[in-house]
Amino acid sequence: MKYELKLGDNAETLKQYPDNHFDSIVTDPPYGIEFLGKDWDKNTGVMETWNECFRVLKPGGHILAFSAARTYHNLATNIEAAGFEIRDQLMWLYGSGFPKAQDIGKAIDKRAGKKDPNYGTDKFNLTFGENPGQRLCKICNKDSKAVYSCDQEDCGQKYNYQSEEAQQWAGWKTALKPAHEPIVMARKPFKGSCVDNVLEHGVGAMNIDESRIAFTDDTDKDSIVGRVNKYPDSFNGLGTATFGDEHQSDYSSKENSSDYEKGRYPSNVIGEIPEYQQFFYCPKVSRTERHIGFEQTQANKRPRGEAFGDGNLLTDSTKSVGNNHPTVKPVELMKYLIKLVTPTGGKVLDPFSGSGSTGMACVELGYEFLGCELDPKYIEISTKRIEGWYEHTRPDTNFDELFEK
After folding, report:
1. Spatial CB neighbours of 113, under 8 Å, sequence gap ≥ 6
2. Quick one: which of 91, 112, 211, 307 has the most CB atoms within 10 Å?
């Protein structure tokens, strides 16, 4: 295991490293949307940082940087202005996004001083039902998730608009539920051919075979491999089949037939897509993964069902509240991205390391890692998570049961 976490301004930290030092950059920078009011999320990274990233990355090295739908253009423009060549846009899809929108009807009531007096008050009191995890309202005895079912009892689950204007604008809100994050894929330019650059610097191409999407079962595999073998001429050089049905293949006729056995060719979409899940890679974060390294702390001894707080880390790390970073990425996702653009055992840079998911992926895979972080609290969190992850994933350890699927 070889990793470093550097506290301080990332641009200043990177000035300590020579030109053409890192093989790849995989990072989750600020989105510039002031997420949850966090000061560090006011911009998508200053130009000095991206200029330093360009300098320390090897020619042909890739950068993969997450962003938000509203501010992707700022990030992509800055990365391009630093000298990188935009190669693609990856799309990470997920079904667990939380709507962050203003309710216009509620806002009108609030402005008029006529808020629903029962909404969100102690009158809305929960009790546990017969099914595991089910919570029922003590007033109407309905499931707390059915917030629009309480028309008979004003128990506080459903907001009742008070004014005529508010009723007119009931159901109108200011934003959609987020369900994707775009990822900038860019590459540092190089002289000559990609073949020459790969031979000289060891970077410039993508490790497709290590990133293939596993078939769900033999039937799924046969649906592709069987048709490829039967109709090899039906596959064009763009990697799509011409069978005329909805299950177009993602393979090129220029590949060897043995490549088809390794899995589906990876696409620029990653995520949760019901009914089409077998076509894409779908990582998730479990609670155990989020709080790895904090197993013996007070936070992990809380009763089941009680949420972790968002308080500050105490100076005594044994009294930590666990990992309270608001934008934790799945380690499996970071592993996938790292393997896609980094040679085996290569040097990976994350100039915005946050709670350490990229570092966790690197130590499991055996890559070298440098993470830069401005907040000492997140340095402490990421150290615990990286060390804990390594202990539970190193070859002579078998703790698979800790990681919920």
Report:
1. none
2. 211
